[in-house]
Write a structure and sequence with these properties.
The complex is a heterodimer of chains A (about 400) and B (about 100). With about 400 residues, chain A is an alpha/beta fold. Chain A is about 40% helix and about 20% strand. Chain A is built from twelve helices and 15 strands. Chain B has one domain (about 5-95): 2-Layer Sandwich (Alpha-Beta Plaits). Helix content of chain B is about 10%, strand content about 20%. Classes of the chains: A alpha/beta (about 400), B alpha+beta (about 100). The interface between A and B is medium-sized, with 24 and 18 residues.
Chain lengths: ~400, ~100
């Protein structure tokens, strides 16, 4: 049944990777991801995990190693953050279309300039379209569970796609939480050995990653996109099996006190826990407010989100990313597209909050809900608003 | 657009766009990228094979007479053969002519 322990989330994720029996870990340390791979290097050095730990010279090299090892048929893991993820960027676009099921934790952190080691979602949003399956964890337990789920889904032969588990830097990575660490037998029952559809083999030569001339490129992109979309079935199946073995249930979209709510906050990641406290506080005062949290970001769970939003008349969408010069934040834009011209669609208001480690407090959530309500009556002049920014 | 024997729809693309057949690029006849073609002056040619050696597309082959001939289905018209020819026997001629 696993054991509930007080443990730093990063260490727990490393333990999950060990329980998943990863074969190759290629990683470069970067705050706030460092503890994950640091602990994994100890686990490997101590002989607790029979894996190859490749100490690389950069994140670009880390992801390159991961592509090679996954292509060779090894269960492959890495973790990174912020500038490290940005340095990986060139390679990140390869494993998706090449169908290499690498699993990566991204400890989400702001991007420079100015230099910031603190938490927001700008690093991953800059890599939104790399063609990986992506989930966002809310707490430490979920970070561990989604890591196991990622191996299960990514390596499924029907999927065979790389997968990112996003965890908020510091807010999750460096926090000690009570977490149930599963038993090895349970994990072994959940996670079969990696049997790739194709692997590098000198006896059966294969070319991976060839040129796609104009006559082929569009078809290759189409095939990859369809694979991403089709992966949702296995993602759901992976969570169903997870619940059966471990007793914890996960869905692409979660709701909190959303029934009959007029206004719904929409969040991703760890601020959702504060948002739940804010919903409780506002409900206590008689406000009709609920929360919808997106766990599965790619492929985007459109039907599940529409169902979760229910009959709410207002969505207050919070982005932890400010794309300069854009119409609004990426989550806001996604949802506006999803509901565009749909009969009975809610009014969607986009807010940017929690950049570079700025806390999003209960009071901030209340401010966001108040503003969304006011905008529903009187259309705002801007398509999004940055919350908590000092004017003077 | 290149002429391709191996053209398929997206559903029939190999998994991950992997290539299992060695030398399958021969099916992609990409010579139509060319804007100029090499023309050989047999009076000057000494059959040394430098064009065959330097052609980056390996599209030269030797004829029964011993001359070297570029395969126009693959020649991209880069002009390296003309540049390397020690007897200036190869001239690049625009495709319009």
């Amino acid at each position: 049944m696993g054991k509930r322990v007080g443990i730093e989330v990063s260490i727990a994720i490393a333990d999950a990777v060990k329980l998943a029996r990863a074969d190759v870990i290629a990683a470069y340390p970067i705050t706030p991801q460092t503890h994950i791979v640091e602990h994994l290097s100890e686990i490997v050095a101590n002989g607790e995990l029979d894996a190859e730990f490749i100490t690389v010279e950069s994140e670009h090299a880390a992801m390159s190693c991961c592509c090679g090892s996954s292509a060779a048929g090894a269960r492959t893991y890495t973790a990174t953050s912020s500038q490290g993820l940005a340095l990986m960027s060139e390679i990140l676009y390869h494993p998706g279309p090449m169908r290499l099921p690498i699993v990566m934790t991204v400890a989400n952190r702001a991007l420079a300039a100015p230099i910031s080691i603190w938490n927001d979602h700008q690093d991953i949003m800059a890599q939104r379209d790399i063609g990986w399956i992506q989930t966002f964890a809310e707490n430490g337990q979920e970070a561990v569970d989604l890591t196991l789920h990622a191996f299960r889904v990514a390596e499924d032969r029907k999927v065979s796609l790389p997968m990112i588990v996003n965890i908020d830097g510091f807010t999750l990575s460096h926090v000690i939480e009570p977490i149930v660490i599963p038993d090895q037998e349970e994990v072994d029952a959940y996670l079969p050995a990696f049997k790739p559809r194709v692997r590098l083999d000198v006896k059966k030569p294969v070319t991976m990653g060839p040129v796609g001339i104009p006559e082929v490129y569009t078809e290759a992109k189409m095939a990859h996109n369809e694979a991403i979309k089709a992966s949702k079935r296995v993602i759901l199946q992976g969570w169903k099996e997870f619940a059966e073995i471990f007793g914890r249930e996960y869905n692409p979209v979660e709701t909190y006190r959303s029934e009959d709510a007029e206004v719904l906050l929409v969040t991703m990641g760890s601020i959702s826990e504060t948002a739940m406290s804010a919903v409780d506080a506002m409900r206590d005062k008689g406000a009709s407010v609920g929360l919808v949290r997106i766990r599965l970001w790619r492929p985007f769970p459109g039907p599940e989100f529409r169902k979760a939003a229910g009959k709410a008349s207002v969505l207050a969408v919070i982005d932890r990313c400010l794309p300069p010069g854009a119409v609004c934040g990426p989550v806001g834009a996604e949802l506006r597209s999803l509901f565009y011209k749909m009969p009975g669609a809610p009014k969607i208001f986009s807010f940017v909050a929690g950049l570079g480690g700025r806390d999003v407090t209960v009071e901030r959530f209340e401010e966001i809900v108040d503003k969304a309500r006011a905008y529903a009556k009187k259309r705002p002049t801007e398509l999004y608003e940055v919350i908590g920014v000092r004017e003077i | 657009m290149a002429q391709i024997d191996a053209i398929v729809g997206w559903k029939d693309l190999p998994f991950g766009c992997h290539v299992y057949e060695p030398g399958s690029t021969a099916k992609f006849r990409t010579g139509d990228w060319r804007s100029q073609r090499p023309v050989l002056d047999k009076e000057k040619c000494i059959k040394c094979g430098m064009c065959w050696v330097f052609c980056p597309d390996m599209c030269y082959s030797q004829t029964e007479e011993g001359y070297f001939e570029a395969n126009m289905e693959y020649c991209k018209g880069c002009g390296i053969c003309a540049h390397e020819c020690p007897k200036d026997a190869i001239t690049m001629v625009p495709e319009e002519d």
